[in-house]
Write a structure and sequence with these properties.
The chain is an alpha+beta fold. Helix content is 33%, strand content 20%. The chain is built from 5 helices and 7 strands. The strands form 2 sheets. It has a 4-stranded mixed sheet with strand order 1-7-3-4, with no helix packed on it. It has a 3-stranded antiparallel sheet with strand order 2-6-5. Helix 2 runs antiparallel to helix 5. The longest helix is centred in the last third of the chain and has 18 residues. It starts with a helix and ends with a strand. The mean pLDDT is 90.
């Protein structure tokens, strides 16, 4: 997606004083710091699930991943079209991207498009958008967001990783608190 074209298109669609809202959430994160090992396993699971779309360099995944790393700060709101721009970030100390930086085959860099006068609000709130999840919930999330190929070898690998996660989380039915990094952009059409 060309973000400049999208923002220009939204400016044409909205009536004056209409509000544009853009949001995205990142990878699920364990709210409890004692679940650091579980988080590392989830990160490995997500990395493995992304194997099916590698290489990413030069594809639509590249700008999307950069946008997540930037917490959407590379989304421009030209002053001639937009006013009252607010950039809100929850749990901004957690990565938005579903992959680790070294899991991608391109350089992660961006130019901030935050203009003077835009509101930037940042919150660290591990209770924000909090859910209780067990290993089956996590499997369902990963399978829905990044479906595995139906190859026996890949299924065996994913099953092994989820078994490792189950043990780390405290057992099959043990639930842990999951939160999310979230970015929300609000802008009013002039």
């Amino acid at each position: 997606m060309n973000v400049n074209q999208a923002i220009s298109g939204f400016a044409k669609l909205l009536k004056p004083n209409g509000t544009l809202a853009i949001w995205f959430y990142g990878r699920p994160a364990f709210a409890d710091a004692s679940q650091q090992q579980s988080q590392l396993i989830v990160n490995r699971i997500l990395s493995k699930a992304w194997d099916r779309v590698r290489p990413m360099k030069g594809t639509g995944f590249e700008p999307a991943k950069i946008m997540l790393c930037a917490f959407l700060d590379n989304v421009p709101f030209p002053a001639e079209d937009w006013k009252q721009v607010r950039r809100l970030k929850w749990n901004y100390d957690m990565p938005m991207m579903f992959l680790e930086d070294d899991d991608v085959d391109f350089e992660i860099k961006w130019d901030s498009q935050v203009r003077e006068g835009e509101s930037q609000e940042k919150f660290i709130d591990r209770g924000f958008w909090l859910i209780d999840a067990d290993v089956e919930w996590m499997r369902g999330f990963v399978d829905y967001a990044l479906p595995w190929e139906n190859k026996d070898e890949e299924k065996a690998q994913s099953d092994g990783l989820f078994k490792e996660l189950e043990h780390s989380m405290g057992g099959k039915d043990k639930k842990q608190k999951i939160t999310w990094p979230v970015a929300l952009l609000l802008a009013t059409k002039k």
